[in-house]
TrEMBL record, chain A:
Keywords per UniProt: Cell membrane, Membrane, Transmembrane, Transmembrane helix
Function according to Swiss-Prot or TrEMBL: Cytochrome bo(3) ubiquinol terminal oxidase is the component of the aerobic respiratory chain of E.coli that predominates when cells are grown at high aeration. Has proton pump activity across the membrane in addition to electron transfer, pumping 2 protons/electron.
Keyword Signal annotated: no
Protein name: Cytochrome bo(3) ubiquinol oxidase subunit 3
Domain (Heme-copper oxidase subunit III family profile) ranges: 43-240
Subunit relationships: Heterooctamer of two A chains, two B chains, two C chains and two D chains.
Predominant localisation class: membrane
Compartment(s) where it occurs, according to its Swiss-Prot or TrEMBL record: Cell membrane
Ranges that cross the membrane: 41-63, 78-101, 122-142, 162-189, 219-239
Chain's gene name: coxP
Pfam families (alphabetical): COX3
TrEMBL record, chain B:
EC number of this enzyme: 7.1.1.9
Subcellular location: Cell membrane; Membrane
Record organism: Microvirga aerophila
The protein's name in its UniProt record: Cytochrome c oxidase subunit 1
InterPro entries: Cyt_c_oxase-like_su1_dom, Cyt_c_oxase-like_su1_sf, Cyt_C_Oxase_1, Cyt_c_Oxase_su1_BS, Cyt_c_oxidase_su1_bac
Amino acid sequence: MTDHALTDAGGTLSGPNNLRSIATDLSSDQRAFKNVPWGKAMMWIFLLSDTFVFSCFLIAYMTARMSTTVPWPNPSEVFALTIAGTTLPLILIAIMTFVLISSSGTMAMAVNFGYRRDRRKTAILMMLTALLGAAFVGMQAFEWTKLIHEGVRPWGNPWGAAQFGSSFFMITGFHGTHVSIGVIFLLIVARKVWRGDYDTERRGFFTSRKGNYEAVEIMGLYWHFVDLVWVFIFAFFYLW
Amino acid sequence: MVDVPLGPAGLVPPAEVEDVELYHPHSWVTKYVFSQDAKVIAIQYSATALAVGLIALVLSWLMRLQLGFPGVFSFIDANAYYQFITMHGMMMVVYVLTALFLGGFGNYLIPLMVGARDMVFPYANMLSFWLYLLAVLVLVASFFAPGGPTGAGWTLYPPQAITSGTPGGQDWGIILMLVSLMIFIIGFTMGGLNYVVTVLQGRARGMTLMRMPLTVWGIFTASVMALLAFPALFVGAVMMLFDRVLGTSFFMPAMVEMGQQTDRNGGSPLLFQHLFWFFGHPEVYIVALPAFGIVSDLISTHARRNVFGYRMMVWAILAIGGLSFIVWAHHMYVSGMNPYFGFFFATTTLIIAVPTAIKVYNWVLTLWRGDIHLTVPMLFALAFIVTFLNGGLTGLFLGNVVVDVPLSDTMFVVAHFHMVMGVAPILVIFGAIYHWYPKVTGRMLNDTLGKLHFWVTFLGAYAIFFPMHYLGLIGMPRRYHDVADFAFIPASAHTLNAFITVVALIVGAVQLVFLFNLIWSLRHGREAGGNPWRATTLEWQTPTTPPPHGNWGNETPVVYRWAYDYSVPGAKEDFLPQNHPPIAPATAGAAP
């Protein structure tokens, strides 16, 4: 991309002109956000939109939880596992959260190596991220199976409000879908990095456009977002 | 008018964005069917939306036949009537207006008006149309599904939307409706991201945000709003689909259905209303803001005068966009929500009148002492201002809780929202089609047919919806299948209903004249040339008309001025295109 200095509005960054120069920068020539490639801008705006989706899901769940006539099941009992005779509340969720947050770390490293054009390390770290993501989805599948065996259904459960199961399957399902899609795209981008598509400017199969290493960062944005959403789900669904 | 800080290179700032490499279609199919060219996609969107509009128009005819002549048409029973209402409303609001303004005009005008070669991600743009088409097909399929389409009312309020008394509630109707909405939203997101990013990051050199035509501002703001408002509808649709298919109780309270206690309990029907209107109110402005923008450009062009208060127009668009997210519960004054909410939402609703009034004043001031050409697009634009003002004023009535409560669910509401978000945006759509058709096809639409179309549509719309205000005030309820036998409805109201129906049939029929004009002019219209309206904006400055794939030939345009340099003193012509270099470099081009 072109040199930032050429398009600098020349305003000072201190004093009362500060806001004005921000506005001038934003509304200036060609691009509102300088040096932000199209794909990255698009991903940010998509994530903003997706934030609204998850917010609506979580707010709807909270409304349902408050409006039910039957008591809500206690999450720390429902999500407890008995391992070697000790019952540990939320142990599986804790491990899942740890795995997902670790995967954000590996993703950040992948982005870093991507910008250094270190193909091998980038691809390995992305595949590691995908592996951790897949492990997360696997544990979620285990959790779903366990709850289903205990009689939890979208329309009812043995312990209380039916909306518990409905919200649980809907929200974790929607988040799990996001993680799964992320894993698939991580693998696709990792393959492209590994093969050197972004160095040889090989064209995309569908879009027939040349890709570049920004794809790694865009993938990273998505992955961190999915991770962040999980933190809110963890806080509002499991800890409340 | 707007100062742009220039780079050291001089008047023309250096390009920040490399010229994009376009996808070159190899076959007829990739050129016209699975096309990645925003202009072809725009035409596909528009044609589909117009086809859906025709279906919705026929549905409105059928409803009017029942209301005007109750009992005469035996095939319109109560179930059919509710199905017509539901499909007419949902089709018009989402599948016609939203799709036409954003998918149609957005796709055609954004790249041309900001001087881009195409949308930033043409492939996603193409998928956007095909998902839209799929959504339309799923929706139309519900006419042929067992039990017919859903008759839940276009707002799809639970619990009745999914109970057995409602047509389609326990059949396929509601499922197909919800699935279609979800597909539409996913498809729209792909397009909407394109529109927003193209405006933000893909403009031509010299095209600063404050030089963009107001059309682009309107479509841009509406796209951002749609990206933030549709998620609420998406979530509502997912949850209702689960309620219907999986037997969850998100929206279902404990209730008795057909004399039987259902096995649902604890859900909140109000929750759906909140989700729906958190989408539904911004949706009004998703439709209105592009109309505002287009009308500003039409008025300016056809009155040969710069838009009055351009900056205020932009800020008003943004203010309306922002405010529209905090007014949604004014649709719910009688829903049983906490009455104190009414105070807050009535206040925010009335505040919206301020930026809206700024826009109306500015349109009028743009016309003031202008060189007004009463062309067909201009007639439609002027009609829009009157109609929108009209609908907006009744909005002030309905925004107040105490006035709204008696008027709720009467024909007054029907008249209000049809004026403000039915007729008004449709008038703009017609005006815009008459205005931009020469760019799309290279030929003018027939003027005489256009004027016939305009006068019948405009006067007819008033003949239809003006009396409805009165019907509402005397208490005629809306969404009633048969109003023949109510003692409180006077005989005069029935006469009026019959009158409205006859006018509605005429206004509907005159749209066929418009369709004929569209098709006939394609071959027989007068040659338009590149810039028949002598307009300033970039889309009229393309090297060839209709613009080819890539729009601009070898070089993308460089923009030197805002979009409204009409009747500039000292200029040779009465308009200066946006890519016209400064006329007096010594003064206009002085380095800052």
